[in-house]
Amino acid sequence: MRSNLKSALLAGVLSAGVAISPVTSAFGQSASSVGAGGSSSGPSGTSATGGTAGSGAAGGTSASTLGTGGTSTGPAGTSSTVGSGGSAAGGDKNTSSTKTGGNDNNLHSMSKARAQDGGTWSRSMTKTKVHKGEVQSRTKAMAHEPGGAPAKSTSTINTGR
Predict the structure, then answer these.
(1) Residue ranges of the domains in the chain?
(2) Could you tell me which of 126, 101, 95 has the C-alpha nearest to residue 111?
């Protein structure tokens, strides 16, 4: 199943196209995010897969998160998966957390990462949900250096829309 999910995610990226949202500024800070998803249906069942990811960087700090999900329904029933993760580095204070939960009808995960060095910081957050045969995911990434507005980027996918 793991290999099939990777193949399905790659197929979703190639068929749906990739939406990349980079943002940079004169302050040496940047934020970017990307998302892709896809779904299919046929006589034997339906499937959907997708995910988003993003990162922010400012000064020597960086933070990144990602989330993916997939679901498949066929004659034998429904199988779903969700995963998420994140990391932060380069700051005096680096934090990251991931929470995953759900039940038979709903899977969800959330990852957050933040790196801070004084007034310079980077952060990223990803929420992913698999529910009713659909995959939804959103990533927000930000980075900030003192003296200017933060760089921001958001990517969202919903295989049901």
Answers:
(1) 2-158
(2) 126
